[in-house]
Amino acid sequence: MAGEKAPAEKNPAKKKAGEKKPAEQKAGGEKKKKIKKHHASRNPVLARGIGRYSRSAMYARKALYKRKYTAPETKIEKKKKEKPRATITKPVGGDKNGGSRVVKIRKMPRYYPTEDVPRKLLSHGKKPFSQHKRRLRASITPGTVLILLTGRHRGKRVVFLKQLATGLLLVTGPLAINRVPLRRAHQKFVIATSTKVDISGVKIPKHLTDAYFKKKRLRKPKHQEGEIFDTEKEKYEITEQRKTDQKAVDSQVLAQIKKVPQLRGYLRSTFCLSNGVYPHKLVF
Amino acid sequence: VFKRFVEIGRVAFISFGPHAGKLVAIVDVIDQNRALVDGPCSGVRRQAMPFKCMQLTDFVLKFPHSARQKCVRRAWEKENITEKWAATRWAKKIEAREKKAKMTDFDRYKVMKAKKMRNRIIKHEMKKLQKLISQKGKKSKAGKSEKPKKVQKPEKAKKAQKA
User: Fold this and answer.
1) Which cell locations does it reside in (chain A) (predicted)?
2) Quick check: is A168 in a domain?
C-alpha cells in the first residue's frame, strides 16, 4: 500500500512542476496538492484476513515490477564510496629483479586455530585499573604535611603536592630539608596532619606523571648466561632532569615554608612513638 | 575533715553525664541521692541530678531553698561565679588538659622545642650558680642558695604558642 501512494504523489508532482509556472503567474490561486484518488484493493476478501490472490499474484496485479524505488544516496554514502587501497607497490633491490613488487596491504591470516576462542561471559562494571575511580581522603589537600609510614623515608614529614593519575600522591621533602625528593607515596601508608602549607601559587610541571616516576627495568637478555645479572640496573642514578625538576618545585615550596615559623624544623624532624603515646589518642 | 558541704546554694561541677563540665547551683535536696539543681548561667536547665555526678566547689551562693531560676541567676551574677571559676586552679587544669588533648603534631613539636629551650636556660643558670658555689666554697663562705628562681619567660611563651 505504501508503494501505491508514492507514484500517486509523483504524478501530481510532475504535473505541478509543469503547472507551477503558469500557476505562479496566476499568483498561487490553485491548491498546492492535488490529492489523487487511490485504487481500491485489488485483492477481494474471501473471509476476514484471507485474500483471493497470493502474494505473487498480487505483485503482478499491482504492477510492482514497474515500480521499484531506491532511497536517495546520502552524502555519507557518497563519501564512503572511496575504497581503501588494497595493494601497494614497493621497490625491491638486487640485480635483475624487476625493480618493484606489488604487495598486498592486508594479507590473509597465516594461521587458523582449530578451535575458536571461546566466547567470554558477559561481565558488568569490571573496569581495568586505568579506569578505576580514584579517591582521596578529605584530610589530604595540596600543601598538607604528611607523615610517611613505610619505605626508606618512614617517619619523615613531607609536603603533599598533588594526586597523580594512578591515585598515588606526589610528595616532596623538600629535598633540602629532609632529603626526600619528588616521590610518590601511597595514600594508605601516610598519616595526614592538620598542618597545611599554602601551595596555591606553586606551579608543578606537567610532565611529572606516573610514567616519569615508574621504575625502569632493562629487559633484553641476549640469551647468554654470563653477564646478565650485571647489566640490569642495580644502581639507581639520579638523572639531570630529576635534579632540575626538584629544584624548580622546591624553590617555590621552600619560599612558602619559610613564611611559617618553626615549620622548617618541624619538617626536618621525624615522627616517633614513645611510652604513653597512643596513636588512637593523638590528634594529628 | 570535710570542708565543702552539700547545702543550698553550693555551686557544683558536673563531672559526667550529658552536662559534663558545667557548673550548677544546688537549689534543693530531694532525697539521699538527688538534688534539685539549676545552672542558669551555664546552660543547665533546672532538674534533678544525682549527687554522684556532682563535685562540690568552694563557692556558695545565697538564695532560699527552691528559689526560682531568676533568683539563682541573680545570685550567680552577683557573685560572678563564672569569672571566679575560670580563675581557679581547678578550671585552669581542666583547660590545660583540653588544650593538650587538642594539640596537633605541629603543636607537639613546638612544645617540645620550647621545653628544650627552657630546660637549657634553667640548666645554664644552675651551672652558673654551681660554679659560683664551688668557687666560693673553696674560699669557705656559707649560705648561697642553690636553686635558681623559676624562669617565667619561656613558660609563658610555650603557653601562648599552644593557644
Assistant:
1) Cytoplasm, Cytosol; Endoplasmic reticulum
2) yes
- The average confidence (pLDDT) of chain A is 84
Helices then strands, counting H and E runs in chain B, come out as 5, 5
In tens, the pLDDT along B131-161 reads: 999 998 888 655 454 444 444 444 444 554 5
Domain residue ranges in chain B:
10-102, 103-135
Q: What residues of chain A lie within 8 A of the CB of B103, using their CB?
A: 283
Q: Which of B102, B104, B113 sits opposite A195 (nearest CB)?
A: B104
Selected residue of B98, B99, B106 to mutate for chain A interface (largest A Cβ count, 10 A): B106
Residue pair A162/A140 in contact by the 8 Å Cβ criterion: no
Residue A17, number of CB atoms within 10 A of its CB: 9
pLDDT at A151: 93
Return the CATH number at A194: 2.30.30.30
Residue range(s) defining the domain that contains residue A135: 130-215+262-271
User: pLDDT tens, A6-47?
Assistant: 444 444 444 444 444 444 444 444 456 778 889 999 999 999
**B4-56: per-residue pLDDT in tens?**
999 999 999 999 999 999 999 999 999 999 999 999 999 999 999 999 999 99
Cis-peptide, bond into residue A12, ω within 30° of zero: no
Model confidence at A231, pLDDT cuts 50, 70, 90, reads low
C-alpha closest to that of A242 among A268, A211, A208: A208
A182 inside domain: yes
The ipTM value here is 0.72
Domain B10-102 listed as CATH 3.40.1370.10: no
Q: Does A193 reach chain B within 8 Å, measured CB to CB?
A: yes
